[in-house]
Amino acid sequence: MSGNYAWLMVILYIILAPFIGGLIAGVDRRISARMQSRYGPPILQPFYDIFKLMNKSSIAVNPQQRLYIICFIVFVIISGAIFFGGGDLLLAIFALTLASIFLIIAAYSTFSPYAYIGAEREMLQIMAYEPMVILTTVGMYMVTKSFNVWDIAMYDQPLLYSLPGIFLGFLFILTIKFRKSPFDISMSHHAHQEIVRGIITEFSGTDLALIEIAHWYENVFLLGIVCLFFASSPIIALILAIVVYFLEIWIDNNYSRLKWQSVLGSAWIVALVLGVGNIAYLALR
């Protein structure tokens, strides 16, 4: 990938990802409402909510919490920029994990018992999904012999053929990353599980808007990883991403929240059986 093309992709990601992520969130709300026999809000409602939050004042319990939120969204954007710029996939994953750490620190800085519990659950979620995420990058490296996103995308056959277990394992932990039931233990985007919203309980106004926009960026990045499994055919890759997200919405609306022990245990079992099993097959074949 040429330097100019890489920078173009980075700029397009920074500009377009929040619009795409917001539309995805709007479609998510509408489909969820229809699954619950409701009409649902307009597809552009997430943008209306963001504009409304931007016009409200932020009540900061700790002066440093705004800095942590800014670091959170900056590192989410950096992770996506590395990915769509054709950089190192492993580095992009580490940047995304660092972003999550800043969100946890921001929650702890509020000194709220509800935010504390949400932050602890967020750390448990990181412990749950991170092994499978790392195994996904390792599996892609074993097939393509590169961590470079462009090299992985240009591989001559779909990775899904060589990494079916990795794909299913990644699909499983996407439910955690998208913050959907039954694994939305630290917070829920739809707030249909609780009145107190876990890790983001003490955030308001612009701070809360930045957190939501960061999740839009993150969702686009995660769906980009899904597309890598069939990158040799862009149209099929896009269809795969749409089907995967629709499946996540269906799961979200048909399963109630699990306890943190079940989230942690099930994610590790999936990583061990599907992730390690697929990698062992690649190593031994």
TrEMBL record:
Protein name per UniProt: NADH-quinone oxidoreductase subunit H
Any one cellular-component term (Gene Ontology): plasma membrane
Bilayer disposition of the protein: Multi-pass membrane protein
Domain of life: Bacteria
Any matching Pfam family: NADHdh
InterPro entries hit by this protein: ComplexI_Subunit1, NADH_UbQ_OxRdtase_su1/FPO
Transmembrane segments: 6-27, 67-84, 90-111, 123-144, 159-178, 220-247, 267-284
UniProt keyword list: Membrane, Transmembrane, Transmembrane helix
Species whose genome carries this gene: Dehalobacter restrictus
Entry's localization field: Membrane
